[in-house]
Each structure stands twice: as structure tokens, then as C-alpha cells.
Amino acid sequence: MYVDLLIALSLFILGFLYASVGHGGASGYLAIFSLSGIASFVYKPLVLLLNIIVSFFAFIQFKKAGYFKWKLIWPFLITSIPFAFLGAKFPIKGEIYNVLLGIALVFPILRLLQISPAEKQETKEINFVGALITGAFLGFAAGLLNIGGGIFLSPALILMGWANAKESAAASAFFILCNSIAGLISIKSQSFFVSEYAYLWFFAATLGGLAGAYFGSNLYKQKTVRYVLASVMSIACAKLLFF
């Protein structure tokens, strides 16, 4: 029971932090479950469900704050949604999944440590063909790894000069929402609440996401906590890749 309460507290904190930067938190949830030794069949559908709810909260708050731009995200969605559905049809198990997930965790760690592309002073129009190709790649990776793909999209938008930090957060939240729904539909036969504690985990992450989305869209800063979270995820990343 103690471990399950600790997981719930961790999910609350992760939901808060990820939603505050427009992310659903799937990579963080996966890291916590991995460190806790929870079987993948228990948490995979639940992670996608949490991703949908937390990213929805983030999207609503950033949209209300005026940061969401439809023209910034729709080209990516054309290809990312079907490819996320397709990627979820190819579940990866065992060591290969651990290695791929461990590599994927490097991206949010870099984001949390703010070792990411510098924000451009001026943004430029999206390259439509480039967005289609990027969306397909990120969508398939999202479905394959059971995440929403926002950890890849955010730095890409900033690196290419297509969006500033707040705009990329809003776009990523909607991107994660759509891809997670596609992935969840693809594995709809699996149960969300296999564990007796899954409901506790669900509500903890949901409450954290709701709070984080509100504070994040209003210039909330948590530099110190970002470093702590990055440290925890680094341990999970090392565990997946090397142990």
C-alpha cells in the first residue's frame, strides 16, 4: 500500500509539471511505473488515458490564455493521427521496448534541464511538406512507444523557428491529445484499470494535471523542481537502458 501511495504522489507531481508545459506526461508516468516494477500490461492503457485527460486540461488552459494557433498544428495532425493508430498496432515488448523508451526519455530530460533549442526571436511560417513528414514520424513513434509525441514536437517547433515556447506548449498539448486518442482506440480491447490501485493513480495524475495546466498557462515557474524531476527520470532512463 505504501508503494502504491508513493506512485500516486509521484503521478500527481508529474501530472502537474507536465501539464504546466503543455505535455500529457506519458513519458514520466512510464518512468515511474518502470522504476516501481509494475508490469507493462497493467499501466500501458492507463498511461494513454491519463495522457488524454492531462493534455486536454493543458490545451484548454493554454487556449484560454491565447497561445493556441490552429495553423501551427493541423498539418502535423494530418499524418500523425493515422500513424499513431498504426504504431499502436505494433506493440513492442521486453528489452527492445525498454531501450526505445529509455532513448525517448532523453528528450523530456533535456527539456526539463532546459537543454533544448533556443527560442527564436521571430517565428516563420510552417513548411507544409516538412510538417507532414514530421507528423508521420512523430505519430508512429508516439503509437509505438505508448506516448503522445509532444516531447518530440515541442523542441522541433522551436528548433525550426515555427513557434515560441508558449505556442509550442499549446500545440503540443493538442498534438498529444489527438495522438493519444488514436493510440487508445487502436488498443481499445485492453482494460484501463487492471490493478486495484489504478483508480488512485488515475485521480492523482488527473488532479495534478488540472492544477499544473492552470499555473503553467499563467507563467508559473518551477526551475528547481524541474531539476529534481529530471534526476528521477534520468535514473529511470539509466535503468531501462543499462540494467
What integer value in Å does the Rg equal?
A: 16 Å
- Provide the residue-averaged pLDDT: 80
Can you tell me the overall shape? globular
Q: Would you tell me the structural class of the helices and strands?
A: mainly alpha
Which series of helices and strands comes N to C? Answer: HHHHHHHHHH
Into which percent range does the helicity of residues fall? over 70%
N-to-C span: 26 Å
Q: Helical segment tally?
A: 10
How many domains? The number is: 1
Range of strand content = under 5%
- Low-confidence parts lasting 5 or more residues at pLDDT below 50? none
According to DSSP, the number of beta strands is 0
Tell me about the biggest sheet? none
Give descriptors for this structure.
single chain, 243 residues, mainly alpha, Probable membrane transporter protein, membrane
Walk me through the structure.
Helices cover 74% and strands 0% of the residues. The protein is mainly α. It has one domain (2-242). Helix 1 packs parallel to helix 9, helix 4 (70-87) packs across helix 6 (128-145) and helix 4 packs parallel to helix 8 (165-186). The longest helix is centred in the N-terminal third of the chain and has 25 residues, at 40-64. The chain is globular and about 50 Å long.
